[in-house]
Design goal:
about 625 residues; alpha/beta; 3 domains; 6-stranded mixed beta sheet; 5-stranded mixed beta sheet; transmembrane; Tad_N; Flp pilus assembly protein TadG; transmembrane helix
């Protein structure tokens, strides 16, 4: 009984004594805090695992979806995940391939053992990941606008540009993109040459240039040393007794002051007086004549006998001569008006020319000369005005086909509408080894339209030659116009003339078409220059003497740099308004030139200012963006 009472007292005492309650509560709170805190640690670990899983899978499917990827997409995904330590996490890889497209979808889960949440009965957490990447090449129209101005010769810039631009073409013009991607290649110097087909389309006919160097105007003797032979203005006392006959074999060329280096013969087979064949003689021995009159007939007859494309004497246009002691000059033969004086015409004599290169010793000129049939030699037209006193109308071998573009035309995206042509001239100096004569680039440097021929574009870039001036606004004008659907008629004309594949009838595609992306890539190494023109575009000296080397009265300012930059930026604004993505590359240029390029680009991230071989990285980055690789989930 006593023991029972003692127990009751003990229990009652324990019941009534609250000492230690806080300790018990604290223990429960500590356990709860540890559980919650641990849970946050486990959740952070889970999120890190999930993020690693997702980012690794994103990279994996992006690499696998790349159309340039040569390995199987599922192998690429597995390889990426293995290197991230998540190879066992992949659940599935689904691949969908189509014409010019590839979609790769990957799913997976990664399990993670918990450290603290197991106290709450959660032993593991599972991190899921789903990634879908697609590279889809829709219709893509690219205008690649490249600077071929004379300054590109400095610091080997052209040597760096060519492989970079060629790599760009190879990356953009892939086998998968064939038929959906077209590229307009727009070389620009002082102006842009649209080529003779569009030049004729714009203007309707070739210009006539008054060119005579005084022949028949009373200031100079003409061939035959008789003013009477040429209807000269002051030949008033001529009669049958004093009239001499014009030599049956006229002279076309002067005797060169030094040994000849090479002679190029120009031929036209499509009747537009623009040469499309040029055969060259080089390797002149010391004994060779320095007067081309002594052997050119033999060579022309030889060329007609051995080149099946030459069928009519009227196809022979003229000759350019390069030799020691004088600059390279061109001399007209067909419709010649001025004898041995030089003419306006091409002086292309190095690197690629559209024809054969032969050694002087390979040909028996005396054997072939009797077979020579000369082209026409039109008599001088009557002189009509004092202004034209020194020149007469004649069709000459125009070496280029640039169309003037005036200020108001930069407010739209159309191709040029002017009927005026850009004269053939150089304003600044001339490096004969790396440049061809002309503010307007030669026919060989004309725009390449809507091409899907990767190899032809690569070869064209490899053969690019520099010319005078920097007309950025002209390059941008053509580049944007060739993306404007309003110019489809011009493309149809190019297709009809065999310059564009008929698959691309209907291009340029409409602005805003959801299946079409349009890009401009504009590259330059200099500032937009003033636009100069010869005061008299008919003066034959413009064909071999820079305007700066002539009297100041021989040149005039068509438009200043400030006006030309404004025209450039107006075209850049129009491009952005039309949804065209504009990339610009300022290559070893001035701060002002770089500022213009940055202002032209679609955004600061679309502008690249580079030096040296970094130009290759710029083109590579742009090519990858144009290829339109994107993550879609």
């Amino acid at each position: 009984m006593q023991r029972t009472c003692a127990l009751k007292r003990t229990l009652k005492s324990f019941k009534e004594n609250d000492a230690g309650n806080v300790t018990i509560f604290s223990i429960f709170m500590i356990v709860l805090i540890l559980t919650i805190t641990g849970a946050s640690v486990d959740i952070m670990r889970f999120e890190a695992t999930r993020a690693k899983m997702q980012s690794s899978m994103d990279r994996a499917v992006l690499a696998a979806a790349d159309l340039d990827q040569l390995q199987k997409p599922d192998v690429v995904v597995k390889d990426y995940m293995d290197k991230a330590g998540l190879g066992d996490a992949i659940a599935s890889v689904n691949i969908k391939s189509g014409l010019a497209s590839r979609t790769v979808e990957a799913t997976g889960t990664a399990s993670m053992k918990t450290l603290f949440l197991k106290m709450a009965g959660v032993d593991t957490m599972t991190a899921p990941a789903v990634s879908i990447a697609e590279e889809k090449i829709s219709n893509v129209e690219v205008s690649l606008i490249l600077d071929i101005s004379g300054s590109m010769t400095r610091n080997g810039r052209m040597d760096k540009l060519k492989p970079a631009a060629q790599d760009f073409v190879n990356k953009v013009m892939t086998d998968e993109s064939n038929g959906v991607t077209t590229l307009n290649l727009v070389p620009f110097a002082g102006q842009v040459n649209p080529g003779d087909i569009l030049f004729d389309y714009f203007r309707g006919e070739r210009p006539k240039i008054k060119q005579n160097n005084g022949f028949g105007n009373g200031d100079q003797d003409a061939p035959g040393n008789s003013l009477c032979n040429n209807n000269a203005e002051n030949a008033t006392d001529c009669d049958d007794a004093t009239v001499t006959t014009t030599p049956a074999v006229p002279d076309y060329f002067p005797e060169w002051s030094g040994k000849l280096t090479n002679v190029v013969f120009y031929f036209d087979t499509d009747g537009d007086d623009i040469y499309n064949i040029a055969h060259k003689i080089e390797g002149f021995p010391d004994y060779a004549s320095r007067d081309v009159d002594d052997f050119f007939r033999g060579f022309v007859a030889f060329a007609f006998a051995h080149d099946w494309r030459l069928t009519d004497p009227e196809q022979f246009l003229g000759v350019s001569i390069k030799g020691r002691g004088d600059k390279t000059r061109y001399f007209q033969v067909k419709d010649d008006q001025n004898g041995t004086e030089s003419d306006i015409g091409p002086t292309r004599n190095s690197r690629y020319i559209p024809g054969a290169t032969l050694q002087y010793s390979w040909i028996d000129y005396d054997y072939w000369a009797p077979s020579y049939v000369p082209p026409s030699r039109t008599p001088p037209a009557p002189v009509e005005t004092a202004e034209d006193n020194a020149y007469t109308d004649t069709n000459v071998n125009m070496p280029s086909s640039c169309v003037e573009i005036y200020a108001d035309e930069f407010a739209n995206t159309e191709l040029p509408k002017s009927s005026d042509y850009v004269p053939h001239f150089n304003y600044w100096g001339y490096d004969e080894e790396t440049m061809d004569w002309g503010w307007c680039p030669s026919e060989d440097m004309a725009v390449q339209y809507y091409s899907a021929d990767r190899q032809a574009l690569v070869e064209f870039i490899g053969n690019m030659r520099m010319h005078d001036g920097t007309g950025l606004h002209y390059g941008m004008k053509y580049g944007l116009a060739l993306l404007d659907p309003e110019n489809q008629d011009e493309v149809s004309h190019l297709i009809a003339n065999g310059l564009v594949d008929e698959r691309f009838e209907g291009r340029p595609i409409a602005w805003g078409d959801p299946e079409t992306e349009k890009f401009i890539v504009l590259m330059t190494d200099g500032d937009t220059t003033d636009q100069w023109r010869p005061t008299n575009p008919k003066d034959p000296r413009n064909g071999d003497t820079p305007l700066l080397a002539q009297h100041s009265s021989k040149s005039k300012l068509l438009s200043p740099r400030s006006e030309n930059v404004a025209a450039l930026l107006k075209q850049c604004d129009l491009a952005r308004e039309k949804g065209v993505t504009v990339f610009t590359i300022a290559f070893e240029t001035s701060d002002s030139g770089a500022a213009d390029m940055q202002a032209c680009a679609s955004s600061p991230s679309h502008f690249f200012r580079v030096e040296g071989w970094a130009i290759d990285e710029a083109f590579d980055t742009i090519a990858r963006q144009i290829n339109n690789l994107r993550l879609i989930q």
